[in-house]
Structures are given as structure tokens and as C-alpha cells.
Amino acid sequence: MLSNFTERLRFEIDRVGVSELARKTGFARNSLYNWSEKGNIPLDKLFVLEECGIDINFVLYDERSAQKNEQVINEEFGLIQVRDDIEVSAGDGAVAGNEEKPKYCLAFRKDWLNSRGLKEKDLYVVFARGDSMEPTISDRDSLLVNTAEKEPQDGHIYVIRNCDLLWVKRVQRLLDGSLLLLSDNKLYPPMPLRLNETSDVEIIGKVVNSSKNFY
Hints:
Number of domains: 2
Structural class: alpha+beta
CATH architecture of the largest domain: Ribbon
Shape: elongated
CATH class of the largest domain: Mainly Beta
Largest sheet: 10 strands, mixed
Distance between the termini: 28 Å
Number of helices: 7
CATH topology of the largest domain: Umud Fragment, subunit A
Number of strands: 10
Strand content: 25-35%
């Protein structure tokens, strides 16, 4: 919660961007920085900033319209589809889900996605089932999967489909071109996957983030 005028003004200037506001208004960057730190902006200058994207109702009264809230969300967050019809096995294999339309999304900050070279269109969220990837991944953890990364790299975690089964495992490439699927939980032995013996194998994508669920 932004409790005062100065904090809300600073938030809005940061949201729109100092460079962008300086370019559109002709105001000096130092003036914009000073106003955002001290809140001592003349009212006529605030109205000019409003024309360039600053939400003046939020700055003055701590109120946003529903349209402005949606705009802020779209500017700052990427909405990643959640495939709750699919569970990936951290165990002996989970059956692939139906191709249902995702019912909801999870929000990830766009600056976080961009800093890791991730694109919203390549991402979706699935849920783990089982304990074979403990302590890294627990039962019912949500996994952010990047479908643009399908070339397995040793030591990284991937979602892999073999016929109708889905696994989430670390992978190791062997000299004969096959994969060794490794569990972080040492109670589970490595699983060889011979790519040359079956055509119905697919690397769905690389797991780039996981979130714990405490229920």
C-alpha cells in the first residue's frame, strides 16, 4: 500500500518511466527525479504528466479506475496460462491430460521474465505429482515450463512425454544419444530413455521456476 502522495507519485513516474516522460514533456530528468523524491511538483506540471500516462486520480486520491488497474496489470505483468488439467509425475509417470482450454492464469512480472529471456507465448504452468524430485520439487508444486527450450542440457530439469506418460526429471545425455532421467530423491533409481527405440517421445520444455504450495 502506497500511503502518501509522494510514494504514489514516485510509483507512477517509475511505472511510465523517467526517460519516456522527459521525452514527451520536455521536462528535465533531474526535475522528474526531484518531484518523485520530494513530491513538490507544481499542479500544472502534474496535469502535463497526466497527459503522458500518469494516473492523476491515483496520485492525488489513491484511487484507480478498473480500466487503469487492468492497464497497469498488462504493463507490469505477464499472464501465464495454468494447465491444471495436466499433472507431471515426479514419480513413475502421470497420464497426460486432455487438451482443455486453461481456466485461469498466474501473473509473473514482465521485468523478471525479460531478464531471463522468457516469452509469455512459450510458457505455461503445470503441477507436479509425487516425491521423486524432493527436495527440489514437492508434490503439488507449480512449475513454470518454457516450451521454447526443448534441447536437453545435462543437469537441467525438463517435462518429458513418453507416449501417454509425463515426467518431470533432470536429464543426462549418454554417448549413445539416449537420455538418463534422474530423480533428486535418491530413493528413485535413474530411468533410461532410449530415443532410438521409440518415436513417441517429446521434450515438452524446460522447468525454469517452481513455487511451493503449502496445502
